[in-house]
């Protein structure tokens, strides 16, 4: 992900320009019109728009509203195959409530991001765009229990390290969405939820051994104390410091 941009635009016209990224756009209020290459498009309400890299476009409020409020994701050129650029020019906007909700929730998660969670969300969003842009390739391979078990072993060996499903996808010659589907079908939760829960279990043991919460957060793979505390409290019902204190009193 290259950039996130939220804006409220009133009576302003973006000049013709282009980006070297894929732009994913949702509109929260009003409506936007834009010309992409020689095609005219509009976005509002439940629609989702995607603008491909390297293609000239502009942007301006619709005459009816005169303004709009939007949220943009600027995603690396590898987000979608370059062969889909032409399809995205022809059909740039989609009325897809489920896709829009997924993008909106991704924006919400970016206030306190976890790389593995963001990776899974982006992969699911990309797969849905691929279905819109290339319907002939919309068939989804069924989940594979054997791949799910191999992925669990892969994750177990890297619980406290930085881990990406892109690495696992290359190793197993599968796509990230397929790995997520297979894992969730086999174990009932996403790889991200599994890794988070396993890290919390390790954290509990280390706290009971007397390690300070700030050190435990780093040792078990959380990127900072606040991130660790939020997940620990959600799993255990109390913050790590309080949990360690209660455990210490029980031991005494």
UniProtKB/TrEMBL annotation:
Residues 149-246 form the HTH araC/xylS-type domain. SMART domains: HTH_ARAC. The keyword Transferase does not apply. The keyword Transmembrane helix does not apply. Gene3D superfamilies: Homeodomain-like. It comes from the Bacteria. It holds the Pfam family AraC_binding. InterPro entries: AraC-bd, AraC_XylS_family_regulators, Homeodomain-like_sf, HTH-like, HTH_AraC. Keywords: DNA-binding, Transcription, Transcription regulation. Transmembrane segments: none annotated. This is AraC family transcriptional regulator.
């Amino acid at each position: 992900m290259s950039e996130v941009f939220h804006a409220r635009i009133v009576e302003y016209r973006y000049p013709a320009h282009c980006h070297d990224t894929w732009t994913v756009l949702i509109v929260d209020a009003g409506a936007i019109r834009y010309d992409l290459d020689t095609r005219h498009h509009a976005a509002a309400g439940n629609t989702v728009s995607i603008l491909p890299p390297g293609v000239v476009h502009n942007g301006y409020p619709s005459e009816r509203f005169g303004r709009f409020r939007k949220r943009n994701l600027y995603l690396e050129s590898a987000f979608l195959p370059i062969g889909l650029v032409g399809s995205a020019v022809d059909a740039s906007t989609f009325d897809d409530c489920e896709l829009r909700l997924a993008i909106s929730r991704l924006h919400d998660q970016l206030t306190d991001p976890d790389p593995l969670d963001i990776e899974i969300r982006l992969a699911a969003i990309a797969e849905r765009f691929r279905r819109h842009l290339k319907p002939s390739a919309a068939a989804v391979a069924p989940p594979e229990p054997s791949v799910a078990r191999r992925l669990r072993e892969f994750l177990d060996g890297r619980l406290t390290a930085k881990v990406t499903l892109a690495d696992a996808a290359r190793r197993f010659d599968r796509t990230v969405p397929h790995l997520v589907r297979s894992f969730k079908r086999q174990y009932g939760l996403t790889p991200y939820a599994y890794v988070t829960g396993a890290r919390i279990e390790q954290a509990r043991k280390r706290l009971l051994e007397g390690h300070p919460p700030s050190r435990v957060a780093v040792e078990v793979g959380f990127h900072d104390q606040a991130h660790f505390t939020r997940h620990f409290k959600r799993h255990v019902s109390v913050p790590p410091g309080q949990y360690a204190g209660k455990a210490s009193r029980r031991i005494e």
